[in-house]
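Page 37, top half.
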Amino acid sequence: MKKAIKLVALDLDGTLLDSNKAMPEDFLPWVRKHSNVKTVIASGRQYYTILRDFPIGQDKLTIIAENGGLVYDNNEMIYINSMNAQDIKESLKKIEKIPGATPILCGVESAYIPDVSDEIFGMSGVYYDHIKRVPDLYEYIEKDRFLKIAIFFANRKAQEHISELQDIPESVTAILSGERWIDVANCDVNKGTAIKKILELFGIDRAEAAAFGDYLNDYEMLKVCEESYCMENGHPDLKQIAKYITSSNDDNGVMKVLNSEVFKTC
């Protein structure tokens, strides 16, 4: 018999949010009603941005930010996996050679972006509530703890350039997290590792965990949670490993599952 669900992990962009970045109207009411289920927002976004966009008591959500580099529960940091300074420097040197790439240092306190045009700043900055435009990223490497380097491609050519990051330091890896995004972080940083930490801390079995995602940065998370859902609009490789395929993010796919009779919670 399938176990009742005690944890639900949700990616945001392309998954819970529609193409206009709007949240389903019935999502926050669902969270309030299911207080016995640990609701986890698992995103590549910044922690402060997620707090801003989810107007609900912080005790209602567990937040995985920066694609797994940082986890907060009830506004308390319970896990961090930060890069070392040398890896950041060497990675930035590689990124600077890629045409159309804008590196963003993603720290605990803030994100830091070069002195780019207002257009690029506005397009990339929508994902960061705390972000500073600085003249030299290298000067800030020792001023914060950094979870990742997010690389923004305004031309949507992230996939075309990820192969150019094969020779970054061995202790870090580059992962495609959207048409416009590549994330560089420690090799063991991913949403799946963060979910494992949460399951261990709160005594939840993987058979009691469900995850929803759409892109390759959700891969490990869907592998960790036994009840795994890929969106209809999801990446083909993610569909291959998901247990279920649900409707697209523009067709309210997440809420169709959460509100269904077959989705049993404890």
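Page 37, bottom half:
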Amino acid sequence: MKVAIVTGASRGIGLSIAKKLAREKINLALCSKNKENLRKAENFLKENFDVEIYSENFDISNYPAVKNFVENVYKKFGRIDILVNNAGILVVGKLNENKIEEIDYLIKVNLLAPIYFCKEVIPIMIKQKNGIIINISSGAGKTGFANLAVYCASKFGLNGLTESLAKELSNYNIKVYSICPGPVKTDMQYEYLKKLSFHERILTKAFMQEPDEIAEFVLNAIKGKYKSGSIIDTI
């Protein structure tokens, strides 16, 4: 059976992706910073799907922790076929008003962590002569928005990573994709809505998608429905 790593898998889009992959009989390696939510997600998946699940609770902004996790996954399963870089956070506000600690941490989680995971997983996929890397980016990775400068920068960077890796890895049968959702019904999105004006909230809610819809795009990428290097809009 194939093995997929899914980051930020304890809720929202990440959990929906994990469910979708489990239905396809893909074994799962899950991680999240939230220990309680991760345990709940793992228990749900074990109760409802006939797949093996490995999980670790750690902060993906820490490179040694990422390296250790990937090594543990490979030791357990002997392969890593799919990497889904899903975990992400949001900082709202004008750049000059953002705290430097918030800026640094967002870039580490949203951009450096996916780079860390790719760095550790790619040698395994090269050895296997196949693999799929899917980065969950954002429409804010293609268009800049006021009060989201740092978030947009991280997602633009993620799309650049996708396009570059697709070219670097084309000779190894490793495919790389970015999925770019718009507004999605997640806890993070609802927190962001609180900071918008009434009219902005109404407009945003009109375009909000379900996490399962985003997970379907991930599954389509795994099934080879897109060209490697594609930056895929969900709306």
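Margin note: The chain has a mean pLDDT of 93.
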